[in-house]
Fold this sequence. Notes:
Elements: E1 3-4, H1 13-25, E2 38-43, H2 49-60, E3 64-69, E4 77-78, E5 91-92, H3 93-102, E6 106-110, H4 118-122, H5 125-133, E7 138-140, H6 148-161, E8 168-173, H7 183-194, E9 198-202, H8 211-214, E10 218-219, H9 223-227, E11 232-236, H10 258-262, E12 268-270, H11 283-286, H12 293-313
Helix pairs in contact: 1-12, 2-12, 6-7, 6-12
Amino acid sequence: MKRFLTVDDIGDLKAALAEAQQxxxxxxxxxxxxxxxxxxxxxxxxxxxxRLSSQKAAQNLGMNTMVLNINEDSWKLETEMGxxxxxxxxxxxxxxxxxxGSYCDIIGVRSFARFESRDFDxxxxxxxQFIQYSGRxxxxxxxxTRHPCQAFADLIxxxxxxxxxxxxxxxxxxxxPKALPQAVPNSFAEWMKAADVDFVITCPEGYDLAPDIMxxxxxxxxxxxxxxxxxxxxxxxWSSFEQYGKILSKDRSWTVDAEHMSWxxxxxxxxxxxxRRNMIVSDEVIDSPNSLxxxxxxxxxxxxxxxxxxxxxxx
Length: 315
Ligand code: CP
């Protein structure tokens, strides 16, 4: 595996899930694979789960890990091509990326959407520069438009907790005070469309995801109808794709509370975290026995380890 950016990079999902179970059972069985190998995790943005789960996964595989917080630990980096660097940016990505690549065997990159331009974000300008100039396999640790490590962990969690062969999985928009990227819902939708689940998206007008993401997904505008018979509720906020990066609604009637969950088939509740309590989900729901948010976060180690293992195997 040379890159991990979308669901297409993982190949057969059944095989990936079987490998995930094996990794979860015997996490230290591949310590020799990573010996004398180094992964560098580059963060342009904050993280708790991705940072720690990626480090833990690398350690389980016997790898050395280095973490670089861009603009905090390092020089401020220029990302635009062809500019006169007479501002506060001391180094260009064009040099920084191959230098980082020369110190490691695998690179992980977190680079969120900037919301300055939909084209810039959806072209994955930063991530693609790492792919082009690092000379190393690249793992997306959440890019402008995708969060594949999260979606893989979500799928592992659904597989572990499903009680029917083909569960109904609902991705529900929920309100948030800040404009958030579409990376998590985009990836979740991509992975659910590829998985053996009955997948439904529910969101207010103006919040449809990108056309290629919506294609093949069942859209139900009525949140109550969408929740009926659901086995898993995956709540998430995202800003508008159509009016790019805009907040069009903070309607708290979309907050997932006990009444919402009563419409479901005793559904499990999921969220990628961090979550705003009583905006996205009520205390009662997230603290209930049906909440999977902690095992879901724990599975981030498993998804990252499968991806790193495959990359090490193909070095
Ligand atoms: N879910 C997730 O990616 O969490 P962090 O932003 O804390 O890494």
